[in-house]
Amino acid sequence: MSGKNQPISGNDLARFSGPNTFMRLPTANRFAGLDVAVLGVPMDIGTSWRSGTRFGPKQIRSESAMIRPYNMATGAAPFESLQIADIGDLAINTFSLSDSLRIISESYDQILMHDVIPVAMGGDHSISLPILRSIARKHGPVALVHVDAHADVNDEMFGERETHGTVFRRAYEEGLIQPDKTYQIGLRGSGYAASDFVEAQGWGFQQFLARDLWHRSLGTLGDEIRRDIGDRPTYVTYDIDSLDPSFAPGTGTPEIGGLSTHQAMELIWSLAGLNIVGCDLVEVSPPYDASGNTALTGANLLFELLCVLPGVTRR
């Protein structure tokens, strides 16, 4: 063993017992010495349809107990080279979206005072805006890989400018992301107007509709994105509703005709080599999937993201 934190083995302690941390990793309340901080943002007050994502982090952690530390498909062994711990949940204000967004941003400012990569479990997609505000304060405008059924570029929703459907318009307006290095993958569904995606394309966003990705590997697309981004600091945000509801029904705004789990994995694998400075997985809503399969899928995609972070060894 490397001396780094390790998930508790299912051969040492039954998987249905032990701590409810991500992959049953050790907890940490300090950031010094950490390379990666896994955290939960249990919030759903930014949603516009079905709630329940406040339960996402807890269920993702629970389902992650099944995951073992070595990636048999890619040879990645993140726990051999990176010091990773679960730092718990941010103490959001469950009665105030605006205050919660402030808390998230201020919490990230504290985390990013250290040389650590934050990996967040949502929570609804509104959490990504305050995260990007903090990320940009440290790294400047970042490249963005955004995997989602929705572009989330509304100007406002019910008069509110900060919701889960307005995140990337605000990020663009505030200069948090590089528009020509922003990639939105898996977009689909119905819209309010034929021009719903056109404006963001005008900003420079590169959009890849789900219908154009059916029946094809996403490894080539990921390779193209990686080459295009180069060594720029990059943020990855993964909305579970990018997947077809047959794979991930437990989400707030499901859309048919989405990506498959093997496409999701291929895309993440192809991002290895990017200078990823943070990532999140959002919109897991356990009440809409009693089987736990959506949270299990989310947990595995988070593990795949850990496997492509900078500095991960491969066997």
Provide a descriptive summary of the structure in words.
The strands form 2 sheets. Strands 3-1-4-9-8-5-6-7 form an 8-stranded parallel beta sheet, with helices on both faces. A two-stranded antiparallel sheet has the order 2-10. The protein is built from 9 helices and 10 strands. It is globular and about 55 Å long. The chain starts with 35 loop residues before the first strand and ends with a strand. The protein has a single domain, classed as Ureohydrolase domain (Arginase, Chain A), CATH 3.40.800.10. It is α/β, with parallel strands linked by helices and 315 residues long. Helix 3 runs parallel beside helix 4 and helix 8 (261-269) runs parallel beside helix 9 (293-306). The protein is 27% helix and 18% strand.
